[in-house]
Amino acid sequence: MPRRAPADAIALLKADHRKVEDLFEKFQHARERERKHALVHEICTELTIHTMIEEEVFYPACKGKIKDEDLLEEGYVEHDGAKVLIAELLDGSPSDAFYDAKVTVLSEMIKHHVKEEERRSEGLFAQAREAGLDMEALRDRLMARKEDLTRKFENGARLPPPQTRSYTGHKLEQGHPLRVAA
Predict the structure, then answer these.
(1) pLDDT tens across 92-151, in order?
(2) Phi, psi of 26, deg, nearest 5
(3) How far lies 176's CA from each of 36, 102, 135, 173, 179, in Å?
(4) 10, 33 contact by CB (below 8 A)
(5) For the chain, what is the total number of helices (H) and then of strands (E)?
(6) Distance from CA of residue 50 to its chain's centroid?
């Protein structure tokens, strides 16, 4: 039986949020390294696809239409922070120092981001709906891009390296978080 499409763009993005929250919960209860590694890969894949469709489709549709444009900039910065941790996790393994801590911090960052997007009256989703955006058309565009990316990654394509909008590319020395490398 074919899956029913979400009612609109916001329902699709919220479904993504719930799925990732569930994956983080499963990680917290996982004990075996192989299970943790598999869950982290799934979390990173889901988050990568989600951030890509938001940044390529949803955020541009909101630009110039919502009341609080700062929410978009904050969303990009939050995505950028997540992308850095995702890259670290994908290059690491559960036996690495800080691995579980990175997953925990990523989870906390995502919880904050979701809360900001889903706030009832001032959140990004509420403002997008209030602005009168065509949520069904946006859903169709988001779904098409999501399906394309999902197929690509399921067929063995590597997740892309993080491309950030807000981070300036400073190189920090390992072990010296405040000292910038020359």
Answers:
(1) 999 999 999 999 999 999 999 999 999 998 999 999 999 999 999 999 999 999 999 999
(2) -65, -40
(3) 28, 17, 46, 5, 5
(4) no
(5) 7, 2
(6) 5
pTM: 0.88
Residue 117 tokens read as: 């997007």
Q: In the numeric block, which tokens belong to residue 77? A: 């910065």
Q: How many residues does the chain have?
A: 182
Torsion over CA of 9, 11, 16 and 17, rounded to 10 degrees?
120
DSSP codes joined into one string, 122-182: TSHHHHHHHTT--HHHHHHHHHHHHHHHHHHHHTTPPPPPP--SS-----EETTEEEEEP-
Phi, psi at residue 101, to the nearest 5°?
-65, -40
- In the three-class reduction of DSSP (H, G, I as helix; E, B as strand; rest coil), residue 51 is classed as helix
**26-33: which pairs have CB atoms within 8 A and are 24 or more residues apart?**
27/103, 27/107, 33/93, 33/94, 33/95
